[in-house]
Inverse folding.
């Protein structure tokens, strides 16, 4: 996937660096996915080399297109109702390594290279709470102070 | 997590083998999760030792309680609108190793030991379609004939 978007910035108009053939394929691929009533599809984000599941978020057609065009992961924020360019504020960006879809085309798997931490709490992964023997356990400590990420 | 449900079958009444303290904790934990308007929460299923993401499915309160009580993963089937005891027909069950929740408590990560294949197509993982260089690529072949799994 990285070879499809060599070096151009995240604000680039979608698809503009692709050949016509690739543009057509990607537009069709995006159209072929199954979205919910809000036009969203869930996306699992996994660190490409370690296999760590970092987060689950949501994408719409526009955020998928932008992610493919720029190579930097962009979600749809349900709480803010706008594109969520991951790391835009915190610097903790995700470089897309590969996009996969599941057998029903209603879920995505993003293999990424995570810069720093994925979670707004400062944890590497959002899934740091495990339920073990009748209690909640933190599987790993926060790696970064959230105040340092968001300046608050 | 495995120590919480030693050896009893999947039809066991939920929580009946837990101590009162564990029952209370698990009931609270299930209540504390954030469900969508249909009472569902997305669950990522990952092979506990290899890190392979196997599938994404949905759970409701009842399926989470059953999964914790039996140690065998049970989802909620949105298409059939009923509990989906994974592997009940195909034999391809998932033994729960650990349940995790994300920072917002609106997504689950199930670490499991997958018996056979997770996907109804016979692939080990449902995420076997990658988009590479403008085309869809099968990342791994099917390991099992679906007809052998479902007898059709």
């Amino acid at each position: 996937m990285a070879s499809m978007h060599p070096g151009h910035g995240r604000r680039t108009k979608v698809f503009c660096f692709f050949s016509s053939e690739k543009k057509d394929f990607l537009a069709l691929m995006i159209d072929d996915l199954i979205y919910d009533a809000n036009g969203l599809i869930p996306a699992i984000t996994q660190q490409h080399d370690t296999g760590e599941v970092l987060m689950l978020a949501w994408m719409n057609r526009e955020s998928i297109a932008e992610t493919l065009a720029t190579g930097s992961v962009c979600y749809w924020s349900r709480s803010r109702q706008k594109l969520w360019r991951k790391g835009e504020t915190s610097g903790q960006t995700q470089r897309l390594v590969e996009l996969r879809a599941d057998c029903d085309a209603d879920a995505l798997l993003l293999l990424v290279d995570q810069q720093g931490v994925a979670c707004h709490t400062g944890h590497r992964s959002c899934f740091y709470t495990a339920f073990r023997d009748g209690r909640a356990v933190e599987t790993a400590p926060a790696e970064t102070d959230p105040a340092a990420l968001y300046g608050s």
The longest helix of chain A spans residues 20-32. The helical segments of chain A are 20-32, 61-70, 146-150. Chain A touches chain B at residues 1, 3-4, 18-19, 21-22, 25-26, 29, 42, 44, 46, 50-53, 55-56, 68, 98-104, 107, 109, 119-121, 123, 126-136, 139 (CB under 8 Å).
